[in-house]
User: Fold these one by one.
Assistant:
Number 1:
Amino acid sequence: MGTTIPLSPARVFSFPARSHRKPPHICPKHGPSTLSLLIPPTSITTKHNNDHHSLKIDTTNNYTTATSSKTVYRDNWLESIAIAFLSKTIQETAGIKDDTPGYKGIVSTSAAVFRELSPNEQRAFVLKVLEKAVPSFSLTMIKKMRLMPNSKFTREFFAIFTTVAFRWLVGPSEVRELEFEGKKERNVVHITKCRFLEEGNCVGMCTNLCKMPTQEFIKKSFGIPVNMVPNFDDMSCEIIFGQDPPAQEDDPAFKEPCYKLCNLKQRHSASCIN
C-alpha cells in the first residue's frame, strides 16, 4: 500500500529587479599597497544632488569624511598594528584591561586614566607610555650622538615625518610654511581634524593627555621645542616645530571651556582642563 504525503501549496517569493549598474570602484581589490603608506592621502569630494551634504573620500582608502558627521577611518593592516601596539602599551602602563577594539580602545583607556588621575599625573602617565613606545636605545643614541640639532633641517624633517608616520594617530595632515627667525620654513604640521580630539570629544583629554606631555617629551628626548596649537572650533591642530610653547597660564588652549557634549563631564565648563 502506498503512502500519501501531503504537499503544502507552493509559495512564491518576489525579489526586486536586479540592477545592472556597477558600484563605483573606490577600494582597491587587494587592499592598499606598501607605497600608499608612505604617500600623503589624496581625496575627492562628491555631493548628492538631493541634499547639501558633501562626502570626502580618501583615495588611499584611509578615511572618509562626511562634513555633517563624524570622520570614519579605514585603517590598513600596518596602521592597525600600530594602533594595537599603542593601545596595549597604554593598558599595561595603566594596569587596565580593556577589550575595546581598534582606535576606540586607545580613547577608552585614556578616558579611564583621565577620570582617575590629576592633570599632572595624567601628563606623567603619558610620558611613561611614550618612553615605553619609543625604543630607549634609539633615544640614547640620538642624545649621545647629537643627531638632532635644533636646525632648519631637523625642524622640517620632524614636520614631514609626522605627516607620514602618524596619520593613523592624529588623522590627515599636511606640512605648512611659517616664518621662523626671519626666514621661511616648512616646519608646521596642520592636522585637518584631530582623530584623538574627535573621538574623545574632550578638551581636557586633548590638553593633558596629548598636547602638554607630547611637547615635553619631544623637547626632553630630541632637544627640539614644539608648540601644539589646537583649534577646538573645527578640531584642527597645528604642531609648530622649533617654537617654544607659552606658559600654561598664558596658553589659549587652557582658557577654553570643554564641549557641551563632552564625553566625560557631560557639561560645558573648564573643569576638564584644570
Number 2:
Amino acid sequence: MFWTELLVTRQTCQRVLWLGTRRYLSATPASQPTVISRFLLWLSQNFHDVEPLLNWSTTLRNRVVRRKNLFYGYAQRRYGENIAAAYYILSLKGAFRFAGQTEWFRPNDRGRFSYDFMSFPAATIEEIDLSGTPINCNGLDNLVTQVHLRRLTLRGCPEVDGWFLSRLHAFSESLEELDISHCPRITTGALCALIHLRKLQLLDISSLASLQNPGLVHILIEEMLPHCLVTGTEYSQGLSSEERMQTNSTAGLKAQATQPQAEENGQTSVQRHGEMH
C-alpha cells in the first residue's frame, strides 16, 4: 500500500512538472491565459505545494529575459557599436535596416541569420522591428548608440513598460515613427515619458490593455506632441455617452481652430504622414 501511494505521488509530481514546463515554453504575458495556466492557478490556490513550482517557472523565465538583454560590451569594443547593435537585434529574432539601404536583415524561422551585416561597420541603423521580442529597458543599452534611428516597432513586446519608454529620450533628435501597440505593460503614466520625443510624427497606441480611457489618452498625447499623428484609438473610446458628446464637440472646435493655420503651412498632420511614406 505504501509503495502504491508513493508511485501515485511520484506520477502526480511528474505530471505537474511537465505542465509547468509546457506553460513556461508556450505562454507569454501578452497572451490570454490558457487552460493549463488556469489549471495551475487553481492548483496554486487549493494546493500550496504547487506554489514553489510556479515560482520556479517565473524565476526561470525572468532569467532567460535577463540573459537575452545582456549588454554586448565585448562586441562593441571588438566590432564597433553598429555591428554590436545589429547582432543584438538579430539575436532577439528582430529585424533592422541600415541607413541608405533598402535590404532588411532578419533571421529565418529557426532564428538563424546571415552575418553579411558585418560588412557594414560604418553604417548606422535607421529602422528596427522588434515585434514580439523580449526586449526590456536593460537591452536598450545595446541600441542607444544608434542616434540616426527613425523608426522603431515594438508591437506586442511583453517587457516594454514605463521604464523602457523613459529611456527612449536617447532618440529624441531622430525618432519619427514609434509603434507600441499590443504592449500589455504600458499605462497612461508610462506614455507621458514620450514627451521628450520632439521629432515624433507617427505613434501607434492601438490595443494597449492597461489603458482605461484610450480616448482621453489620445487627446493627452496630441496635446503633449502636437506635431505627432496618433493612431489606434478614437476620441470617444472608453468614454460614457455624455463624455463622448463633450469630447467630440471639443475635438471639432479644435479642428476648426487649427485648420486655418494648417492651410497656411500648406499641410495637415495626415498629409505629413503621407509625405513620410
Number 3:
Amino acid sequence: MSHPEVGERLASIRHVVLVLSGKGGVGKSSCTVQLALSLASQGHKVGVLDIDLCGPSIPRMLGLEGQQIHQATAGWVPVFADSEKRLGCMSIGFLLPSKNSSVVWRGPKKNAMIKQFLSDVYWGELDYLLIDTPPGTSDEHLAAVEYLQEWNPDGAVIVTTPQAVALADVKKEINFCTKVGLPVLGLIENMSGFVCPHCAECTNVFSTGGGEGLAKHMDIPFLGRAPIDPNLVMLLEQEDKTVVPDVNNPGSERQKTRSIVETYQHCELSRIFGTISTRLDEILSVEDSD
C-alpha cells in the first residue's frame, strides 16, 4: 500500500535512521539523544521522532517536558531544544495531559498515531531524522517500517549492552531487520564500563567487548562502545539543561550554556558519541555515493 503523504514529508530529509534495541534497559533512548546532540553540534540539522508510545522519555531527556505542539498550515511543528533550531523533537509526550498519563492503546491506534507523526509533522529541511523505537519487535516497529519502506529509509542503529542475555536479544533484532529489509547501519555497545567521577578510571561493571564481538560475528559495522557516565545521567535528569553537570560538586555554582546541545559537550561521553556519529555519517556518505 502506498503512503504518498509520508513521502512528501521525507522528501526534505536526507537520512532516516531508526534506533532499535533487542530488550529494554540498555539505554537506547539515551543513545538516540546523544547521537542527536552530537550530530547537531557537528552542524547537522536533526529531528528526533519518539515512537515509544507507552514510554516516551525523549522530551524529559531533552528538557522539553510540558511543551506544547503548535499547529501550522504546513502541519505539526516540532518542539526545538535550542534557539538555533538545529535539534527538533516530536513525541506523544507532548500530547498527553500530564507526564503521569498512561497510553493504553491496541495496535491499530498505535499504528494510526505513528502514521500521523510521519505524515503530519513539518520538519522542514533535515540532515537526519532519528526515530526512537520501543524495545523488541512490536507493532510500532512494523508500522514504522511499513510506512517508511516505500521511501527507502537508510537503516537502523542497534543498541546493546555487553552481557550475553542482551546480545541474544540483539540477534533477534538483527533477524527482524533482515526479514523486513531494513539495513543495519551499525551497533553501539552501551554501558560498557563505568567512569569514576573522581579519578575518571573506567571499570567494566557488565564486562566489555560483547557487542563488538557480535558485530564481527554478524558482519555488521561496530560504531563504538560507551561507558556509564554519571555526569550524563545528571544532565538528563536535571530540569535545567543549560547547567553544566558536575557530580563531584552538585551544590556549587556551575557554568551555564545556551542549550543542551552546548551543555552536552562538557560531558566525557560527547567525545565518544562524536566519534560514533562521525562513523555513522561516513557509512551513510558511502551509501549516498553508491
